[in-house]
Amino acid sequence: MTRHRWALAATLTATLATGTALAETNWTGTLEQARGQTVYFHAWGGSEVINDYLRWAAERVEDEFEVTLEHVKVAEIGTTISQILSEKTAGRDSGGAADLVWINGENFAAMKENDLLFGPFTQDLPNYPLVDTDNKPTTLFDFTTPVDNLEAPWGMAQLVFMADTARVDATPRSMLDLLDFARDNPGRVTYPAPPAFHGTTFLKQALLELAADRDPLYSPVDEADFDTVTEPLWAYLDLLHPLMWRNGETFTSGAPEMTQLLNDGEIVLSLSFNPNDASNAIANGELPDTVRTYVHDAGSIGNTHFIGIPYNSDNTAAAQVVANFLMSPEAQAHKADTSIWGDPTVLALDKLAESDRALFEQLPAGVATLSADELGAVLREPDASWVPALERAWQQRYAR
Amino acid sequence: MITRLLPWFPRLLLLAFLTPVLVGLAGTWLPAFGWFPALEQRSLSLAPWLELLHYPGTGTALRLSVLTGLGSSLLALGATLLILMAFYPSRGFRRLEKLLAPILSVPHAAFAIGIGFLVAPSGWLVRWLAVLTGWPEYPPNWMTFKDPYGLSLMLVLALKEIPFLLFMALASLPALKVEKTLWLGASLGYRPGKVWLTLIWPVLYGRLRLPFYAVVAFSLSVVDIALIAGPTAPPTLAVMATRLFNDPDLLLRLPGAAAATTLLLVTVLSLAILYYLERPLRWLCLRLLSNGKRPRLRLGLRIWASLVLIPGTFFYLGSLLVLILWSFAGQWRFPGLWPDPFSSRTWVSAPERLLDPLWLTLSTGLSAAVIALVLVIGALENEVRLRQLKPGFTAQRLLWVVYLPLLVPQIAFLFGFQVSLAWLELGGRWWVLVWSHLVFVLPYTFLTLSGPYRAYDERYTWVGLSLSGHRLATFWRIKLGQLWRPLGYTLATGFAVSVAQYLPTLFIGGGRFATITTEAVSLASGSNRRSMAVYALVQQLLPLIGFALALSLAAWRYRHHRALQQSQT
What we know:
The structure holds 2 protein chains of 2 kinds.
Chain A: H1 2-34, E1 38-44, H2 48-65, E2 68-74, H3 77-89, E3 100-103, H4 105-113, E4 141-142, E5 145-146, E6 151-158, E7 160-164, H5 175-184, H6 197-210, H7 226-240, H8 255-264, E8 269-272, H9 277-284, E9 291-294, E10 300-308, H10 316-326, H11 329-336, H12 354-361, H13 372-375, E11 378-379, H14 386-398
Parallel strand pairs in A: 1-2, 1-3, 10-11
Antiparallel strand pairs in A: 3-10, 4-5, 6-10, 7-8, 7-9
Chain B: H1 2-5, H2 8-32, E1 35-36, E2 41-42, H3 47-54, H4 58-87, H5 91-104, H6 108-119, H7 124-133, H8 151-176, H9 178-187, H10 192-221, H11 224-229, H12 237-246, H13 253-289, H14 301-327, H15 345-348, H16 350-389, H17 396-407, H18 414-423, H19 430-455, H20 459-468, H21 471-482, H22 484-500, H23 503-509, H24 516-524, H25 529-557, H26 562-565
Antiparallel strand pairs in B: 1-2
């Protein structure tokens, strides 16, 4: 019996070893193939901080893998998806314009559903085992859509609020608290108009906090009684809007405009998906150093952002090399540095080698950054199907 | 040899810019009627239209588009007339004329951002108030920008269009002999205002009609300015269409195509109404005005015109100043009048970021401008030939065709054009990018050059021919030699138009071509006003350098020819 078990273990180990060896040769092949290829990485270009980070990454992959990385700076990733769609319409199933795209959530769900993605591929990336899939379930489920190795985790996000402490003594601890806050500070609170990404997230956060029962939010929307579930949200917004910036008659276009208005003093609260945003903006002079980050007591929505490879890319080898590099401890630690970008890592620190872990541990904490404890509970994104339903209902009520 | 090639020029010209537009339109109409094979949509139906109809806010968005689009165009036209009536011809106007080219090259988005920073409740004007009076302590909750009625959008659009209409008017006015007409009127006891309205304006409008229509089409379908200065809930129809095109729910591209087509329909309809209203309005006006009365009362024209000119100039200078200040800002908060501290950090790090896009912008812009110039000269020479064959020949019909790309909303055809390029496997090529820019560079090249070119006195060529007997040399040395100034100016205009192209560069390049403008627009989606300002200023500087070069080259070329130094254009 014991011998038998030993034999089994030995076979298993051997299989695993050959498996690893196979993966290694495969990866060597990918590296070989990637040499000399150019990767067009379509990613939002609205932040010089991120643009600079990608320029650094481009230099690194050029040096190490002889891969040319071109950052295509888009104002909205939707234009890239349009591009891929028009290529598909024209039957152009190879030689597509984009080789890598920065996506998550609905965009991923749509691309997956319409077979616009290459892969699965992340299982072959040598750095993928370092990803903290155990404690960061959003690396496996993107807005509840199974990732299925079709996109590579790049960074973690959690909804945080920012307040200018020069004008705010006590920050709201919940959505209901925010209503009182708005009463005390009329015209100083707002949120971006859905379907802008951050606006929709604000709706989801409010709904998660206000809903009597959260369970229906984690199933497809057509299985739920939408009106009943969302009733508290609309009742809340009906009260909030008249107290908001410009009396809720006009909204901001997104988090970037909120940052500007916070700096201008038109509003006193803002929001972001990057817990380090405030520190970074302070370092840049985009926000005053009196701005601090806070979250609601009930926790806040968290998710992961990814990079995917369009189905018609000709440079999938180089695209994988870049995706793997961006997931490496070196690139992730550089990215997590608040003086660089401050985007939280997707890696599990306890899976890293000592020297790699040190890279993260050396990082200075940003002045307005919350500790992991202070960041509190991460609320899961509702099912992806809730997003269009909420956006449509919001527009129906407030944007007719 | 060359003469035999001439008839091909207008045809090439047509081919060069009509194909993309027509192909693109068709490529947008198919999805608007439910045909989108990439999304498994293969049945022709009206479903996308119904969906658009039921999409929240469509009605309001359409109303906002019509209101802001037509409102701003009419405001701009009225203001142009007012300014001309009050100040043309005068020495002050000469000065204004020189300012027009640089003003025209101000990028739309930068202008809108600048105005926003002037009039917003945390903007410069309120800051002055706060610093001078101590009130308000914090920016007031006023609706001075991005108002839900579209008023601020209308204002920004009108301000942006007045210089263009003035510019086009100035190209036509010399031929109308305004001064003599005003004299004649005065000798009969009529004040200038009445002479303008009854005698000059009707003729001038005939020549301004197409530029005005281009303004209407542009204002109805503008996206970038509407994003910055327009209402948000709901936005204008053009913004809504763009959003639908970019929505993660891919099927929304179908109603998006319907929305883009609606914009086209609205544009066509508006232009048709304007066209057919023209006659009855003219009749009515002349009937009301042709009464032989010579009212003593001064209209106070100059006062009214100043009410347009002074705020207009203020907004242009103010927005420029604000941009320059932001580009040097370390931090800048309410109620500070100046950045505190100043910092050159953004400029210092700029060259590294700007170099590649700058090079592409230059090479694309110059190529498009030169090709357009050659094609237009060819077409205009052909016209000269036709006029010799058939006296009385006019190219009025051609003009409509030339204008077509300016009358069709870009959003209504670029998506379809992108599909056909992918189909032909042409996307992402540099020459296709140049070609797509040509679509917009050609009309402006034609507009800028045709006036002076047609005004050239062919007798110089005859004299030259009789002396040298050499056609090409005569053309080159005598005709083009005299037209050096308008040629340079036209090149600069073409270059400026190319620099400004955003959607074509993005769509046709498949994202592979980053110009200063695409970089500026993508940065405008972020929060860093400093980088935005730096890019906007560079974007503005390029055409300015072009115009300055054109003018100084002409001055240098004519340093020994005093008569040509005085040339009007």
